[in-house]
Amino acid sequence: MTDTAEQILVVDDARDIREPLGQYLKKQGYRVRLAASAAEARGIVETARISLVVLDVMMPGEDGLSLCRWLVAHGGPPVILLTAMADETDRIVGLELGADDYVTKPFNPRELLARVRAVLRRTPAAAPVLDATRRRFAGWTHDPTTRKLSHEDGRMADLTTGESKLLGLLLDSPRTVLDRVRLLDLMAGREAKAYDRAIDNQVSRLRRKIEDDPKQPRLIVTEWGGGYLLAADVEVLE
């Protein structure tokens, strides 16, 4: 194992799962960090170069879904959730929050390893540099640096990293249809076939923040069989 090997963070309050899984992943050539709580995991993510997080959903105190939300909002590494077999709701919510995959307990370590490898293959080696230009559209002003939206009528909205990046891509090409494959490629360089629904979920959340009626959107318009289009003119601000 070398210092350049990808580093995986395993977060699980159960020592009898956390430590054997860590040892197994080390034998597969990965560097591994272990955390027994969300608070401990945050400290590691903020100070170490983590390539992927394997995250248990059910933990005392702050649960895994809350930590997943924080990781996605802060542009953290990809996440694979460990969920109980019966907790389908947790799996759905986790994917909607932005988790990359999930494995149900009890799990075969070889299955988890296959999913780890698959997620790492479709994750870009380095995040793209984000444009810090503030832009105005349909009364809204988007500030990608703070990930905030402000409307001329006083409304405000905070965006996750993914939502802000998606909006920035739509603002780059107003009144132009961007298909899901293109959006996925620009967003994260991931395999489009596996993440069509992820883009749809991002668009749905973004609509709830900027549309007067999210069920009948007028700003982010669906082009059936094509993708999405920003139906507004865009003004670049100084």
From TrEMBL:
<dbReference type="InterPro" id="IPR011006">
    <property type="entry name" value="CheY-like_superfamily"/>
</dbReference>
<keyword id="KW-0805">Transcription regulation</keyword>
<keyword id="KW-0804">Transcription</keyword>
<keyword id="KW-0597">Phosphoprotein</keyword>
<dbReference type="InterPro" id="IPR039420">
    <property type="entry name" value="WalR-like"/>
</dbReference>
<keyword id="KW-0238">DNA-binding</keyword>
<dbReference type="Pfam" id="PF00072">
    <property type="entry name" value="Response_reg"/>
</dbReference>
<dbReference type="InterPro" id="IPR036388">
    <property type="entry name" value="WH-like_DNA-bd_sf"/>
</dbReference>
<dbReference type="InterPro" id="IPR001789">
    <property type="entry name" value="Sig_transdc_resp-reg_receiver"/>
</dbReference>
<feature type="domain" description="Response regulatory">
    <location>
        <begin position="7"/>
        <end position="120"/>
    </location>
</feature>
<dbReference type="Pfam" id="PF00486">
    <property type="entry name" value="Trans_reg_C"/>
</dbReference>
<protein>
    <submittedName>
        <fullName>Two-component system OmpR family response regulator</fullName>
    </submittedName>
</protein>
<keyword id="KW-0902">Two-component regulatory system</keyword>
<feature type="domain" description="OmpR/PhoB-type">
    <location>
        <begin position="132"/>
        <end position="232"/>
    </location>
</feature>
<feature type="modified residue" description="4-aspartylphosphate">
    <location>
        <position position="56"/>
    </location>
</feature>
<dbReference type="InterPro" id="IPR001867">
    <property type="entry name" value="OmpR/PhoB-type_DNA-bd"/>
</dbReference>
<dbReference type="InterPro" id="IPR016032">
    <property type="entry name" value="Sig_transdc_resp-reg_C-effctor"/>
</dbReference>
<feature type="DNA-binding region" description="OmpR/PhoB-type">
    <location>
        <begin position="132"/>
        <end position="232"/>
    </location>
</feature>
